[in-house]
Design goal:
45% helix, 2 domains, binds beta-D-glucopyranose
């Protein structure tokens, strides 16, 4: 009997030890990752969020994906606070205002939570571990080069007339988009071959709060009225726009002023948002930049895996992005040039969109 009880005890102890190990293993598998996105009102962030959630879940993580209303900074701060309080091990954050997260991220640092800045750099915080984005300066140079080459600025006499639009002043990315574009266009503005009638050539003057389509439309309408631009009035050869949501506002204003396919000023963009791809097909936007959010999301999943496992994180840039506390090790994905000539291969053949997504009603 004594022997039987002894065996029973050993069996019980062994079973409970196995059970405990099993629970610990299952517990280790459900590492929580917080993903904080700025808004659902712009198509790209919905895609970024959805892609990342799917890929992180596939990799075995539990994902807390939050959108901060429509670019609402206090909402984003509160959501990040919750992610830290509810034990997320890694935070992936696309900041609305890159400088508004310093306070909330102090507690991430204290709790040893790793922070990946997603697409937009988070400024003035030493809690930021890595930055995953596209090569933002290159986005700007592709846009600027497109304007230079389409207007043949090196061979034509000119002058050509242009107006300049960039994005939200609180988004660090505009330094690179606008800076990249100006690195190409500025010499021609200086020499007088490109003329900005409004004289609004600084980043602050060209900025569009919140990357808002409506704000861009209003500013373009004012420029049209003030400088008398129009197909039958003063010439406007090109409008530089840093992205698609801004370009759509510019298109609305230009169409209302009588421009259309055939006489439309050169107009740049970025993101290949569906409405902008449709505008390209209709000849009322000239180009966009394709940033495959699947590539960025999968890069971030690699980063998360490496951080969780404690293995080296793959980066390809350790010099460009200083957030005010030092250089943030970054991975820059390649942006791709898109026009009406290659959108089918880029967007439909690659499975990014369905043909029906781009049907023009
Ligand atoms: C992103 C762009 C986007 C813009 C507006 C930028 O930070 O890099 O892709 O168009 O924000 O949301």
């Amino acid at each position: 009997m004594k022997k039987f009880l002894c065996v029973l005890l050993i069996v019980l102890l062994a079973t409970s030890a196995m059970f405990a190990a099993g629970t610990a293993e299952a517990g280790a598998k459900v590492t929580k990752i917080g993903v904080s996105m700025p808004t659902q009102s712009l198509q790209r962030w919905n895609q970024d969020g959805a892609n990342m959630k799917a890929m992180l879940e596939e990799a075995g993580y539990k994902v807390d994906l939050q959108y901060a209303g429509d670019n609402d900074i206090p909402t984003q701060v509160a959501q990040i606070e919750n992610m830290i309080a509810f034990d997320c091990k890694v935070l992936v954050i696309a900041a609305i205002d890159g400088s508004a997260l310093t306070e909330v991220l102090k507690s991430a640092k204290e709790k040893g939570v790793a922070v990946i800045a997603y697409d937009r750099l988070i400024m003035n915080s030493n809690a930021v571990s890595y930055y995953a984005t596209f090569d933002n300066f290159k986005v700007g140079t592709i846009q600027g080069t497109y304007i230079r080459d389409t207007l043949k600025l090196d061979t034509e006499k000119g002058p050509f007339y242009i107006e300049l639009f960039t994005g939200s002043p609180d988004d660090n990315n505009i330094n690179f988009f606008f800076g990249g574009a100006m690195s190409i266009l500025e010499p021609y503005i200086k020499s007088g071959k490109l003329v900005v009638r409004s004289g609004q050539t600084s980043k602050a003057q060209a900025a569009t709060p919140n990357w808002s389509t409506e704000e861009a439309q209003k500013r373009m309408e004012t420029l049209i009225t003030t400088y008398n631009y129009g197909p039958k009035a003063n010439r406007l050869d090109a409008v530089y726009s840093s992205n698609d949501s801004v370009a759509q506002g510019i298109t609305n204003a230009l169409v209302a002023a009588g421009y259309g396919k055939g006489n439309f000023p050169i107009l740049t963009g970025q993101d290949c948002d569906k409405p902008s791809v449709k505008n390209m097909i209709m000849g009322i936007q000239s180009m966009s930049i394709f940033k495959d959010t699947r590539t960025l999301a999968s890069k971030v999943v690699d980063m998360v895996n490496a951080i969780v496992k404690g293995t080296p994180v793959d980066i390809n840039d350790n010099k460009t992005y200083d957030n005010g506390t030092g250089i943030i090790p970054s991975f820059l994905c390649e942006p791709v040039f898109a026009t009406v000539d290659n959108y089918k291969t880029l967007l439909i053949d690659s499975g990014y969109y369905k043909e029906s997504d781009l049907t023009i009603n």
